[in-house]
Amino acid sequence: MSDVVNPARLKLALLRSGVALDSADGEKDAAAPNTVDILLPGDMWVTAKVAQSSPLTLVRSPGVSAIRHQGGETAVRIASFGSAASRVVTMRSTWATVMLSGGCGQSAAGRTCAFCRGRELTEHAGEVWPIESVVAAVRAAFDQGDAELVHLVLGYFPGDDAGLHVLRPYLEAIHRHFDTMVALTMHPPADLRMVDLTYAEGVDVICYNLEAAGAESMRRHFPGRARYLGRKRYLSALARAAQIFPGGAVWSDLLLDISPRAEIDAAVAELVAAGVLPTFGVLDPEGGADAPALDDSVAIAAAAFHAASHAGIGLGWMRDVSSTFTPFDARYLVSGAPQSQSLLHQLSRNRLGALTTRSLARMRRRLRVRRVRASFDSSHL
Ligand code: SF4
């Protein structure tokens, strides 16, 4: 086993290149999984896409797992080896993740809808699971003791509310049955009042994922998104959300392998200036030539950590995020990084800490929502 490996560098490397399965595993598991959920040193989770071309190999033997890399091997823990908790819920570290209508985005759902690719909406996007099935599957995930938070990932729905009308009964049911936090990844709404309503309905963390850092890379990789949504709709919804949601609870994912470095740096500055935290994913781990150099990705992530700290945006909500790289993960890339955020995380891990965090979030919502509801009632919505 190599002695010291920086968990943040290893997470970035695994997100960038994916992970190869050791030959024994590769052969044995004909239906090799698409992804593996791995707990790295430093309590850092990563959902690595399986890519046999990756220079990083997952080695498993009874009771021991490790990532083999240039510097040797690093002991890790495997949470899930591709097997979803159920058809409805996929565990991503401690996040019970539910895709509705196929979900949205590369990091959260591993896909992009036909709409964003500028294609005919002919393909079946994905299941809109019955509410009772979602409640039952989430209950099973909590009963197994794996889940600590629910993450809803909503696919494409036409209309200015981007499908919030579909989501509301799920939010109502989840909050009726569980004392939990809810994160949501979805298409940005055209009607900004829907952002307020999203918070009012019980969403704690919201992600409208730009993915393409600049207008040019959006046109190239997501022609439908560029034509029908455009950056402006994302930035308006994100800026509005940053005024409504708690600090640090509004995120937008940028893909490191589809935009030039300058576009990514500019987008990071733009998002942080609006009170939004950028996260970093990858479109295609087997992208070869397009993959940015690891040191470039490290520099981008460290810069995001500095920008967020400088802007005073809390990183407290970014717990156990596995499918993308966060400014909180970047604390390991910054020497002398303040430990206050890690301390907050440790506090919110224990029962009392988690309960307090949820109660404070509820109280804050009650105080803010009274105003939001009044404005909606007055406009008969
Ligand atoms: S933004 Fe909308 S259309 Fe594009 S991938 Fe997400 S849900 Fe699908």
Explain this structure to me?
The chain is an alpha/beta fold and 381 residues long. It has 2 domains: 7-78, no CATH class; 82-349, Aldolase class I (TIM Barrel, Alpha-Beta Barrel), CATH 3.20.20. It is globular. Helix 6 (193-200) packs across helix 12. The protein has helices at residues 7-17, 23-28, 106-109, 131-143, 164-177, 193-200, 215-221, 223-244, 261-273, 294-310, 340-349, 351-378; strands at residues 20-21, 35-40, 44-49, 57-61, 64-69, 72-80, 89-92, 95-100, 149-154, 181-185, 205-207, 250-255, 277-281. Strands 7-8-9-10-11-12-13 form a 7-stranded mixed beta sheet. Strands 1-4-5-6-2-3 form a 6-stranded mixed beta sheet. 40% of the residues lie in helices and 18% in strands. The structure holds iron/sulfur cluster.
Map the helices and strands.
Elements: H1 7-17, E1 20-21, H2 23-28, E2 35-40, E3 44-49, E4 57-61, E5 64-69, E6 72-80, E7 89-92, E8 95-100, H3 106-109, H4 131-143, E9 149-154, H5 164-177, E10 181-185, H6 193-200, E11 205-207, H7 215-221, H8 223-244, E12 250-255, H9 261-273, E13 277-281, H10 294-310, H11 340-349, H12 351-378
Parallel strand pairs: 1-4, 8-9, 9-10, 10-11, 11-12, 12-13
Antiparallel strand pairs: 2-3, 2-6, 4-5, 5-6, 7-8
The protein binds iron/sulfur cluster (SF4).
